[in-house]
Amino acid sequence: MSPRRSAAEALLTRARILGRAAEIASAEGLEGLTIGRLAEELEMSKSGVHKHFGTKSVLQISTVDKAFVDFWHQFVEPALGERPGLHRLRVLCDNSVRYLAEPLLPGGCLLTAALSEYDGRPGEVRDAVVGAWSRWRDQLRADLEIAVEQGEVPEGFDVEQALFEILAAGFALNAAMQVEHDEAAAGRARRAMERALNQT
Fold it and tell me: Distance (Å, rounded) from C-alpha 115 to C-alpha 43?
């Protein structure tokens, strides 16, 4: 086997492991991930999984990164070509609602679940979760600030309050979908986000 083919196969195997890890973590939490469990479910040896990650914390961090990158590529990047400010913000909000209403993972948004799971736990896994969350929050804040600079929102508009309400609507939507399977929740989330943008 050529080195190039071997490296390509290793990447495919890693992607397969992380795909299953993200499914488990979305439904059961990052603490539900173990190298032994993934090896059993994927019919691999423990050493085969271990060589890709080494430790449970590396596996957990890699899973957070995978879930966030998938979200970013599919729901954030398509909006980044839109006009900055209020227009792009509305596209981002709509895309985030679609992501939460029709999640990529069986347990809903992994990052939302991980924030609750790790909010009081110090360590490198928490740092990875917070880092991913901060990147999403900062993108929203940036467009809110541009909207203010461009005069697209009323005078006295409170960026931090709007940001808080948009993010809160996302948390509420994820809970409504996962706990209650409430099909009307996406509409409520959209209305809540729009109200946050129309504050006076």
Answer: 30
